[in-house]
Amino acid sequence: MPDFSTRSSEKELLDDPSIPFEDIRQNMRELNIINTLLGGHAITKRGFRKILGTRREISICEIGCGGGDNLFVIHQWCSRAGVKAKLTGVDINAHCVEFAKDRYGPLGIEFICSDYKTSAVAPDIIFSSLFCHHFTNGELVLMLQWMQQHCKVGFFINDLHRHPLAWWSIKGLTKTFSRSYLVKNDAPLSVRRAFKKKEWQQLLQKTGIEADINWQWAFRHLILYKK
């Protein structure tokens, strides 16, 4: 049994830039299924709606967008709700951006291959999903400050809660159903790299940002900040 008292510092395989495109493609497909079945996309929509409020026109940017599935889910919701949305995804991995462009670029969603820190984005809403646990605590403090400085309306974060049951569950599910060695390795590891509520409170305290931290099923946290 791993030690869940502190975050793991072990790097995920997906953080290696030399991973072949076909392996990343399978990883992106399976992550979308996991987010759909385990409620990750529902949490993203919940965070977006809370910051959107009554606005009928909005610009939104996801940093660490991966395969673009989160933005597609928001695109679908906005289309049904009659909200005019300009959607942008930023990711440092060129393979992920290529995958996202092929699938969702024709819908008008823009994808940029860049480090989020050097991207020239200043949207109404910034968000990330399953992105923060890739970083050290120090790097995340800088990210939170960057998100606050570059959003016009607010930001939200959808990420994992470090817990033994979450680890056992995703380890069993991916071992049984996944065909991706990336998912089998990184999904359980991402839980070990994730945060507990007290840790989010400490990180936010270091930045001086006042944000709401809401626990979500299944084993997620939704962090909401409004200007």
Automatic annotation (TrEMBL):
GO terms for molecular function: methyltransferase activity. Pfam families: Methyltransf_25. The keyword Transferase applies. Residues 60-153 form the Methyltransferase domain. GO terms for biological process: methylation. Gene3D superfamilies: Vaccinia Virus protein VP39. The keyword RNA-binding does not apply. It comes from the Bacteria. This is Methyltransferase domain-containing protein. The lineage of its organism: Bacteria, Pseudomonadati, Bacteroidota, Chitinophagia, Chitinophagales.
